[in-house]
Amino acid sequence: MNSKHFVSALMLVAQGVLAGAADAAVTALVGGTVVDLGGGPALEDAVVLVDGDRISAIGARGTVDIPAEAERVDAAGKWLVPGLMNMHVHLGLVLPGKMAAELAGETDAALALRMAAAAREILQAGVTTIRTPGDTRHAELALDRSIRKGESQGPRIHAAGEALVITGGHGSEPGVLYADGPDELTKAARQQISLGAKWVKILISGGIATDGGAIAEALMTPEEINAVVDAAHRFGAKVAAHSGSSAATSVAVDAGIDSVEHGYTLDRKVLRKMHKAGTWLVPTIVVSQPATAPFFERIGSPQWYLDRRNSVGKLHWEALKTAIEEDVNIALGTDQLPHEPNDGTTATVREAEYYVEAGMTPLDALRAATIEPARMLGADDESGSLAVGKYADIVALRADPLADIGALRTINFVMKGGIVYRNDDAR
Ligand SMILES: [Zn+2]
Asked: How far does residue 382's CA lie from ligand 1's centre (Å)?
């Protein structure tokens, strides 16, 4: 093929792609109730028109023209909310005990396949966006690319690459690349960003899953935390800090950290500081509460791990209640796979229910699972609510989530980017 023919061939390919985009499916969800995340009255008997991967119109039936070629989905008797967002997910999660033993020596290929399987389940559970604050061997970055190409099914992934671990700190395990001091941590942060991470994850206090370093102690120095935040922000990346400690969190807030994960023992003073600074809290409350006890039994957790978990349960609950009282920005995260079974539902839904039990209104809990994470990610211009121009990431429920957040247990339809991945009522 000479170069002229080659160019023509390329143009044909390009035209084909464009034609494909122009012919992209139009879908109309008809007759559902669109929940208002602003707290206003719901839009009943609505039409949500989806053109390609975006919402192109929303209105009462009769006010939206439905093109003849549109595929109609009957949404009568359903409440429509944005796809759920879970901000603390480790796709390659391995916890101590039987689970770790079974997955010892897992190859890169096996890991990627395990992650891909989890991603499909996550989408089926109605979670259309996740953040992965520290995952394994960068397989989640490859999976993200594969999902965006349409090769794999899964949620939108906002990845942090691998967490930055200080020697002896939380996350210590064989094979981890340690980084100590401002210079090493700066380099490690830049490495994650260069591989495609949009977030950097640091572990500034002890945690549950590593038997080393007290949960309430500040293990990273202020100089180290400042160095990572500065390095990440210069590249437009955000920083998430695993922290169970008020002292460590206070330093991180001063450094301009974007989100604090877990917050197991945070006191009112530091939560007020977070509120003032606009720092996000991702509670992952489900990991320390009774709903997850059967999960930890199932994965054969050793006693030291269960003891560490039980030791923080009450404090963690108090910290969450206080954070809600102090109006701290809260974005939902579970630290379990989003679809992990909990109390007859998923970890994601159980987490939202716990928020209501700890003092949130159902509206605020729904927001914490949708628009608030979108704001934290800086992605609220394209996701997190049902609005014209945003991604058509939509789930349908059989009950009103503003009357009872437990309505999230009735997810029966999942659309992401205009593609229907689940419709329990379809024949
Ligand atoms: Zn975690």
From this structure: 26
Ligand 1 centre from 323 Cα, in Å? 19
Dihedrals phi, psi of 356, to nearest 5 degrees: -70, -40
Model confidence over 86-118: pLDDT tens digits?
A: 999 999 998 888 888 999 999 999 999 999 999
- 91 CA distance to ligand 1 centroid (A)? 10
Look up the pTM and report it: 0.93
CA of 89 to the centre of ligand 1 (A): 7
| Neighbour tally for 269: CB within 10 Å | 11
Q: Retrieve residue 85's tokens.
A: 């967002």
CATH classification at residue 365: 3.20.20.140
Q: How many A from CA of 135 to the centre of ligand 1? A: 9
Residue 355 corresponds to which amino acid? Y
Helix (H), strand (E) at residue 235: none
H-only helix segments in 257-405? 268-277, 293-298, 303-325, 347-357, 362-368, 371-377
69 and 90 fall within a common domain: no
Q: What is the rounded CA–CA span in Å between residue 227 and residue 299? A: 37
CA of 381 to the centre of ligand 1 (A): 27
Separation of CA 18 and ligand 1 centre (Å): 41
**Whole-angstrom Cα distance, residue 127 to residue 418?**
14
Q: Kindly give the distance from the C-alpha atom of residue 140 to the centroid of ligand 1, in angstroms, as a whole number.
A: 14
CB 215 within 8 A of CB 264: yes
Range of the domain at 64: 3-83+385-423
Provide the residue type at 71 as one letter: E
